Amino acid sequence: MKGIIATITLLTILPCWAVADEWPAAKVQHVFSGNGLRFVRIVPGEGYGDTVGFKGSKTGAYARGEFYKKQPDRSYTLTADVVLQNPVAPVDVLLSNRGYLLTFDNWHNAGYGKVVAIYRPNGELVRTYEVDALYPTKQLEAIPTSVSSRWWRCRPFGFVDPDEQTKVYVFEHFGGTFTFDLSTGTHEYQPGRSKCQTQ
Hints:
The protein is mainly β. The protein has helices spanning 2-11, 137-142; strands at 29-32, 38-43, 64-70, 76-83, 90-95, 101-106, 116-119, 125-129, 153-159, 167-172, 177-181, 187-190.
């Protein structure tokens, strides 16, 4: 699991623990499943005007996800090409061996918009979450913010069940853990006492 998390970290646009408001330009990302049988190519969008702090900017197409599956001849075939929930790009991504894609946060807007989005192997959207659906108002107001973002999420994140890969966990600011079921989109919260790990 550590290897998978390290790989995903290298593919991210910006680590979620950074609090500066300088974000590198969004680039095409490729995320592979652990077994190498699937990958998703994420093409950045141009929906800058739909992000917090960019009001009045150009609003264009959202990011796209191209879903590929390995074939017997070892080539990869495009199985789906869908619009993602991210105006520009997700910050972190995770792809299961069965082809479920989970994205965290939005470029230049961690904690705003669709902070969690889950997609089936055919690209169909399972469910999305905004941060106010995860926290009560009082806690939401206590989450650290910067000019561009609300830093609700911590390290690490990964599969609860590395073999089956049906659920994904992520640590959050208050020391607890959110768990998301990839097939149903439901989530659970487990309070904790651990300190938020920023690296």
